[in-house]
Specification:
The protein is mostly helical and 412 residues long. It has one domain (2-402). It contains 20 helices and no strands. Helix 6 runs parallel beside helix 9, helix 9 packs antiparallel against helix 10 (165-176) and helix 16 runs antiparallel to helix 19 (360-387). The longest helix has 28 residues, at 360-387.
Length: 412
């Protein structure tokens, strides 16, 4: 009885913090709501949102199917496009539809956010409070529809760590069909199966994930293939874009040719280092422990980094935290995200015609600060995992820790 009372109190606190975060985030967007998202106000006041912008730009205000517009189709995987289209039918008529569309989607996103926080409360009760109090999370909550994919990604991790692999695969497929980021989690998942010589389970997991993803995508692919392909075409062919390491380098005068090949090479290096990290454990860590490390590192070398991507990383970061000593690194990372959040909008304000804003060089430095704080947090978590005797039975020093941190005493 005492435990249930304590848990009930903790749940109520998480619910209260989640709702407070939603109110604060909504207040951040209030200026743009009142100014009808005028440019450059949306950047000056850091209250831009894709929700009202794409409502008119993609024909959603006319209830046009999200993938029937050819080059004007939405640039997202099919489930997110379906949400964008379906919520147009919830908008009452009678004027101010763009504002009402934002209200409807903001309410649904808040409910999903509450769900994610409560889910973290069951998975990592000691640190779940960090999500609704993280400033970069509060600032980004209503920029995009990402929360629809985040909740199913967290469910996939939850079920995987509970060894309910079929439900995990289904949840992961749904998440991939919503935003595609969670495809990165297949790397540690398959590695864990392979290391434990559970090839049959790995094959079954992949089969379920691919099958569910294909079933979700098939109707859109078969009826509007051009609109379906637009998301993949844009991401495969895009150059260095806002927030990326490569874009920051270009602003500082360091232009890298053949970026697609270079980004692929960087990704291969990241994957190799990650597999070395996992291989150094005799007892594999949980998916929850390594999910942040793999996604954050990959996003550091990706070709774009939007401000709302922190919404994907923050829950994974909380799942990866094991000790109170990790909290300073978490807040340093959040500081880097906040610096970038302010920098991107002030830079875009200058680009969109404001009389003041952040010049190229300062924006590039802010981008590099965000990447540096992210990698610092990744290294803290990796070092903590390698030094934790519950995760590895090897003697005090790990080979990877020796290599990365110079902890070896001597060599013969």
């Amino acid at each position: 009885m005492r435990t249930s009372i304590i848990w009930s109190s903790a749940t109520k606190l998480l619910l209260l913090l989640s709702l407070l975060a939603g109110v604060l985030s909504f207040a951040k967007f209030d200026h743009c709501i009142n100014s009808n998202w005028a440019t450059p106000d949306v950047d000056i006041h850091a209250c831009y949102s894709d929700i009202p912008s794409l409502f008119t730009d993609r024909g959603l205000d006319k209830h046009q199917w999200a993938y029937s517009g050819g080059d004007k189709s939405v640039e997202y995987p099919v489930l997110m496009g379906a949400v964008m289209w379906a919520t147009t039918w919830l908008v009452p008529s009678g004027g101010n539809e763009i504002r009402k569309y934002f209200y409807v989607n903001a309410l649904l996103l808040l409910l999903l956010f509450v769900g994610v926080v409560l889910l973290l409360g069951s998975m990592r009760p000691k640190y779940a409070y960090l999500l609704p109090v993280a400033p970069a999370v509060i600032g980004s909550l209503f920029i995009n529809w990402d929360m629809w994919g985040i909740i199913t990604m967290i469910l996939a991790i939850y079920y995987f760590d509970k060894k309910r692999y079929s439900l995990s695969a289904i949840s992961l497929a749904v998440s991939i069909a919503t935003k595609f980021f969670p495809v990165l989690l297949l790397l540690p998942i398959l590695f864990f199966f392979w290391k434990d010589r559970r090839i049959h389970e790995a094959t079954r997991y992949m089969f379920i994930t691919i099958l569910v993803w294909a079933v979700i995508n098939a109707p859109v692919f078969l009826t509007t293939p051009q609109g379906w392909w637009r998301f993949y075409e844009l991401n495969l062919g895009r150059d260095a874009d806002w927030g990326s390491l490569w874009y920051a380098f270009s602003l500082l005068g360091l232009n890298i040719g053949h970026l697609n090949y270079f980004s692929i090479l960087s990704l291969v290096v990241v994957v190799a280092l990650f597999l070395l990290f996992l291989a150094d454990f005799e007892n594999s860590p949980s998916l929850a422990q390594v999910s942040f490390i793999v996604m954050a590192t990959v996003l550091c070398v990706g070709k774009v980094y939007s401000p709302q991507y922190v919404l994907w990383l923050a829950p994974l970061a909380i799942l990866a935290i094991r000790e109170r000593r990790d909290l300073p690194a978490f807040w340093i990372w959040q500081a880097g995200e906040v610096i970038y959040h302010v920098a991107i909008w002030q830079h875009l304000a200058l680009v969109s015609g404001a009389h003041f804003g952040l010049p190229d060089g300062a924006y590039a430095i802010a981008t590099l600060i965000r990447i540096a704080t992210t990698l610092y947090f990744v290294l803290v978590l990796a070092r903590r995992a390698l030094s934790n005797p519950s995760n590895s039975r090897r003697a005090a020093r790990s080979r990877l820790a020796d290599f990365l941190f110079g902890t070896a005493e001597s060599y013969p």
